[in-house]
Structure prediction request, 293 residues.
Amino acid sequence: MKKKRDEVRLGLIQTTCSGNIKDNLERTLDLCKKAAAQGAQIICLQELFRSLYFCQSEDHSQYELAETIPGPSTQAFSRFAKAHKVVVIVPLFEKRTRGLYHNSAAVMDADGSIAGVYRKMHIPDDPAFYEKFYFTPGDLGFRAISTRYAKVGILICWDQWYPEGARITALDGAEILFYPTAIGWAKQESAHNRKCQHDAWQTIQRSHAIANGVFVCSVNRVGSEGGLDFWGGSFAADPFGEILVHGSHTKEEILITPCHLNEIDHTRQMWPFLRDRRIDAYGPITRRFGDRA
Prediction:
């Protein structure tokens, strides 16, 4: 059996989106070509990359944006992945059947096949983030997906605030957690609150890397859409939580970074959190809240 390479090069695509879904697809494919030319082996796109972030309002006409898996986006990236021998994480608005939709991500393996699909588990419902109107909560669970270059775990945006999702995905064998994201500031937000929100967002994801001894990548869009200024800031962190690469708040960028998978062994040996877990005592985690029965 051929030994898996220790170094894997990651590519994070941080970009703006327009109302033209065809143009968004073509521009993103072009950015992915540039990432592959820079040596990226696993490329991650941002959440709902083919359109504007339509969840700022409840509008039935937006269901026309949904597509099946397989479908136009996965077919386009299947050809791309096979041609460039790369893995691509393709987040999309999935139409599962009439009247049933998910916020999903398909993982295209380096041979062009679909290695796996993740459906967003935690669905927000806040001003300007009315996702419960559009998306059914995921039913595929938290899991690692094997690809040519690494075992990856996919969690999407609101999932990033929940340590349970990161932990279960890591326990399933994921070496790298990817968080395709669409998060931004309200236009009236103060500079102080903007900084605090961004710091909290980055901190919680770095904590997932540390607590689980895995690499974490978050890929967020940039640009002003409706009442939101998307804050970009895409980044990758190693198993100690150190930032490997970081994007700006305003620019379209291709972020490339190597990660060395043997750092997972080293980190977990130094900080043996998985060894010392008290799995016999965690039953209450399944309660919503409150006193023990």
About this structure: Residues 191-212 form the longest helix (22 residues).
